Amino acid sequence: MRSTHAKSNFLLLTATFVGLVSMPSLSAGAKPWKEETVLISSQGDQTVVRPFEGDRILFKNADPQLAIEWGLANARTTVVLAGKYVVSDCIDIPRDDVTLIINQGAEISLNPETEHNADIGFRSRRPGYWQIVPLVYNHGHHNVRVIHLGTLVHSVWQEEQRGKQTFPIVFDGRNDKRTCGVEGGLLLVAGSAAQSCLLLDSRGVHVPLFALDYASLESGLDGVLTLEGCEDCRLGMIVNLAPKPGSTTGETVDLNSRNRGIAIERLVGERSNEIIDCNESHATVGEIVSIGKPQKLLTSSKGSGPRWTSKPQTGSVSLDVKQKTILEDAAGVALRLDVPTLPDALPRFTVRATVEVTLKDGSKKAFAKEAEIDVQSAE
User: Fold this and answer.
1) What distance in Å separates the CA atoms of residue 220 and residue 269, rounded to the nearest whole number?
2) Quick check: helix, strand or coil at residue 66?
């Protein structure tokens, strides 16, 4: 968290959005939620899977990837508890209608010594150079919920002929029909990552809150959330703050190519170079908030250079921004993330992010978002 000391006699103005996110109801006779929830923890050189209640070990493996995937294959809700988990390859979501919660204190990184088969591709000026390995990968599964409250480590390896890097979370609906192969689901981020999360060829995904705690970075991210080929996705408050006082950020949201029906409540950026970049896409934004004078507030273009989607070109664009709030007299900013203790708070808990801006006259403005998560199945 980065903050500045408050001056006396300040005015605090708070704008809050609240959202409720529930799992689809199960059919009659489904198991109670506690019986459909497993906990992942580190125990010596093993990663173990236990039920929500009791100490019985359901599964264990030296590779955390396999333990987490076992949980996702056998329970509706999988909670990764605090600890360090070095996975051999990406964590592959195995089926529809599951929830993965990466808890506070949980750190997931990619083992540099193992063979990495995952690669989502990347069209760049050096074709075939980059291998992109998602740490959490939803390829073609519907109604998947990923709630990231911990740390997803960004790793980069570069050689002359080949480069490799990790991306934190990817929803990937690409398919031969060139349609949206992922339907529904949720992505909530109130943890740490150092690369953009991706939504590719996905329809109806809800991102109620995206606020990275990345104060340890040297510079702000060039885009915290990227969408390509997506339709009818709802975004709540998406935040991209600079980790050092007075420094800058890139894009908050990158609608890189061929999106439509994207509805965004609020985007927050700090001295950004494009808080939103809208290329060959169609979106509405309730409010754009610039902390400090932006390098460039937004970009809207009919052209695009898709890096992942193969959806047909449309050559059209529309970007409707309802309100622009430019806080040129910002003297400081703090991000506060309020996350309950898990798994104790299950089955229903609230995550809250507050961006508090201190102005040069000592007054303050705050922009907040709450997202309520309910993992209960029918009981």
Assistant:
1) 10
2) helix
Phi, psi of 19 (to 5 degrees): -135, 145
> Where do we find the tokens 């903050």?
3
**Which amino acid is it at 197?**
C
Find the range with the poorest average confidence among 112-116, 122-126, 359-363.
Answer: 122-126
Provide the 3-class DSSP secondary structure of residue 93: coil
> pTM to 2 decimals?
0.91
**Alpha-carbon distance 19 to 5, whole Å?**
31
Q: Which residues of 185-210 are buried (b: 16+ CB within 10 A; e: fewer)?
A: bbbbbbbbbbbbbbbbbbbbbbbbbb
By three-state DSSP, how is residue 256 classified? Answer: strand
For the chain, the straight-line distance linking the first and the last C-alpha, in angstroms and rounded, comes to 39
Q: C-alpha 318: how far from its chain's center?
A: 24
Could you tell me the CA-to-CA distances from 135 to 17, 121, 165, 347 in Å, in that order? 29, 14, 10, 25
* Closest among 209, 143, 211 to 371, alpha carbons compared: 209
CA distance to 1, 165, 171, 318, per residue, from 134 (Å): 26, 9, 10, 30
- Check if the beta carbon of residue 79 is closer than 8 Å to that of residue 48: no
DSSP type of residue 246: T
DSSP designation for 227: E
- Express each pLDDT in 253-285 by its tens digit: 999 999 999 999 999 999 999 999 999 999 999
Among 74-78, 305-309, 371-375, the range scoring the smallest mean pLDDT is: 305-309
* Cβ neighbours of residue 324 closer than 8 Å, sequence gap 6 or more: 287, 288, 290, 297
Rounded (10°) CA dihedral 368, 275, 170, 189: -20
Which of 142, 101, 132, 141 lies closest to 198, judged by CA?
Answer: 132
